[in-house]
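Exam prep: given the inputs below (a chain plus MU-OXO-diiron), describe the expected output before reading on.
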Amino acid sequence: MIKFSDDIIYVGVNDRKIDLFEGMYSVPNGVAYNSYVIVDEKIAVMDSVDKCFGEEWLGKVESALNGRNPDYLVVLHMEPDHSANIARFMEKYPNAKIVGNSKTFVMVEEFFGKDFADRRVTVNDGDKLVLGKHALKFIFAPMVHWPEVMTAYEESEKVLFSADAFGKFGANDAEEEWDAEARRYYIGIVGKYGMQVQALLKKLSVYDIRVICPLHGPVLASDLSHYLDLYNKWSSYQPETEGVMIAYTSVYGHTKSAAETLAGMLKDKGITVALYDLAREDKALCVSEAFRYSKLVLATTTYNADIFPAMREFIDCLVERNYQNRTVAFIENGSWSPIAANKMKAKFEKSKNLNFAQNSVKIRSALNGESLNNLSLLAEELGNS
Ligand code: FEO
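Solution:
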C-alpha cells in the first residue's frame, strides 16, 4: 500500500511469477497490475488485479479503507488482468456498487455469470461521479485496448486514471527505463488502434493533467510531455528515431553476413542502425523496433517456396498493426529460385504510405561481387532518402 497523495492510495501488485503476458509476450521483469483507492466522503476503488493476486489485493484494499466500507468499484477495463476479482470484491463488500458503462456490464455478465443488476452505476462518456471533494469525470477510450475501456479524470488532484494507456511491461520494483518496455507494450498490445489512441489524446488535450495512473507500470508524475509526445508519435505511426532497422533471418549465416555488411556500410555513412535476428530476438521487441525507426530492411531466405517462417510472422505482425510511413527495402537469398523479396513486398500490398526502396538485393547462396555492389547501392539509397 503506497499513499501517493493524501487521499489516493496505491493498492496494486507486482507479478513476478507470470511467464507470458496475454499468453504471448515475454516479461522478464514481470508486470504490475495497478489499482488505487480514492478516499473521500465516498470511497472508490479503481479497478482490480489478476486472479492470482486476489488475496493480496483485497488485503491492501482493506488496509487502505482503514475500517470503512467502499462505495464503488470503478471498472475502467474488463480484461481479466484488471477485472478478475470483481465478484470476490462484491461478495466481500455487499453495499458497494460497480461503476462501468453499458459495454462493461455485458462483459461482467459474460465473465462472472451474473449481472449485479441492482448494484450497477452505469455511466456515459463525460459523466461525473462525485465522491466529495474528489470527482471522477469519465472519458471513454474505446479500443484502447478493448471496446469498453474508459479513463477517469479526477478533477481536484488533476489525476488521470488512464486504463491500459501509458502502461508498460515490468513490475514496479524493476529498475528499467520506461520508454523501451512501454513501447514494446504499446506497439504489441494497442498498436493496431492508433486512430482510437489519437482520438483519446485529442479528448485529453483539454484537461490539465498532473499525474497519470495507468493500470500497468509506474505512476507518472513528472515530465508528462515526454510520455504524451511518445504516445502521439506511436499512435500516429510516426517514426521515433531516424535510422534503419535491419531485420533478418539466416539459415547458414550468409544472409546474416549480408545484413551485417549492410549495417557496416550504413554506419560508415553515420546512419543509426539496429540489427535484429528475428529467429532469436524477442518478437515483440523486434516489432516495436520496426515502429521506432524510420527505415526497415528485411533480409531473408526463400523457404518452402515462400518466406522463411520467422520473417513471415514478423511481417504479419507489422501489417496487422498498420505499419506505415516508413521506407522498406528487401534482401533475399536463395540457392535456387529465390522469390522471397516479391513475396515479402506482396504482404504489404494493403499497407498505406510505405515507400519501397528502388534497390533490392538478390543473393545466390553467398555474397559475391555483384550482390556486394547491390548492397552498397542500397546503402547509398537509404543514406540519401
Ligand atoms: Fe492490461 Fe488490456 O489489459
